[in-house]
C-alpha cells in the first residue's frame, strides 16, 4: 500500500478518535482548554508580545542589519550563519519559544538568509526563556529559585553545542561564493547597511508600528491555539490510558539510562507539552532532585510537540524545512540532560540546592524573594497586558478596514 495512503488513514483515524473523545469527555476537555487559555493570556502573551513588536521594528529600521555586520566575524566561523543570526540568537534566548523561528522566517523572507542558513539558525535559536526557567520551573514547580541557574546553564550550553553541530549541516548543498572586498572599517560598513535598509523600507513610522502589532498578535493567536489544542490532547491521552501504555515503553528507555520508572509518565507528558511535563516531574517524590533536574533539562531541550507544532506552522510560511529543527531538538534534549548531570555536583554545593542543607547565606534568600516577586507580578499583570494589546490590535485592524 502507498505510504501516503497509510498516512491519510492514520491522520483521519487519529482526528476521529480525538473528536469522539471530546464528545464523551466534555468536562475534561473543557478543563484542559481553560488551563491552556490561562497559561496563554497570563504568561505567554504578555511576555512575548513586547519582544515581537520590538523585533519587528528593529528589523524594519535596519538595526538588525547593523548588528549583523558587526557580528559577522563571530557568527560565520562558529555557526556558519550570517551576523544577523546573532540578533536572532539573543532574542530567542531572551524571549523563548518560538521567537527564534519567527525572526528566522522573517529574515529568510527578506533574503538575508539562504535556506540552509535559515535551517541552521532555526535549530539553535529556539530555547526556553530565562523567565520560564527561573519563574515557572524553578519557583513555581520546584519552589527553589537557585535551581534556575543549573537548568539555565545546562539548557543554553546544550543550545550552543547544537549550533556548533549544525554548522556541518548542508555543507554539500552550499556553493562557495567569493566575497566582495569590503571597504572601510567594520563600524562604517554597519552604519552604511543600517542607512540603506532604512531608505529601502520607506514606510511611515505609524504604519510600521501597526504592521508590527498586527504581525505579532497574529503569531501569538496561533501560539495560543496550539497551547490550548495540545493541552486538550495531553488530557485526552491520559484519560484514554494511552499515556500509561506509552509510559510502559518509556520505562525500558529510562532503564538504559539508569533512571527510575516513576519518571516515565512525566516524561511522556513532557514530550507533548513542556510545562505539564516539568510540573509532573517536580512532583515525583520517589527519586532524588538530581534525577528530576536531568529529566526536566531533557524536556526543556526537546521542547515538546506543542512548541514544535508552533515552530512548524511558522516555518511553513517559507521554504525552511522542519526536519532539521526536529532532529536538533532531540540532540538538544540529550545534551541539556548530559550537562545537567555533569555540573550537578558543583551547583548543588555552591548554590545550596539540597534541601537538607540549612545554612543558606542571606544573599541567596534575597535572590529567592526577588524571583518570587517577579513571577507573581507577571501572573497579576499578564491578563491586563493581554486585554489592552488585543484592544489595540482591534482598533488598528478596524481603522485599516475602514480605509479600504
UniProtKB/TrEMBL annotation:
Q: What is this protein called?
A: Sporulation integral membrane protein YlbJ
In this protein, which residues make up the domain named Nucleoside transporter/FeoB GTPase Gate?
Answer: 44-140, 220-316
What residue ranges are annotated as transmembrane?
A: 6-25, 37-64, 84-101, 121-142, 148-169, 217-237, 249-272, 292-314, 326-347, 374-398
Keywords assigned by UniProt? Membrane, Transmembrane, Transmembrane helix
Q: Which organism is it from?
A: Lederbergia lenta
**Which superkingdom, per the lineage?**
Bacteria
Q: Which Pfam families does the UniProt record give?
A: Gate
| InterPro entries with a match to the protein in the record | Gate_dom, Spore_IM_YlbJ
Can the keyword Lipid metabolism be found in this entry's annotation?
A: no
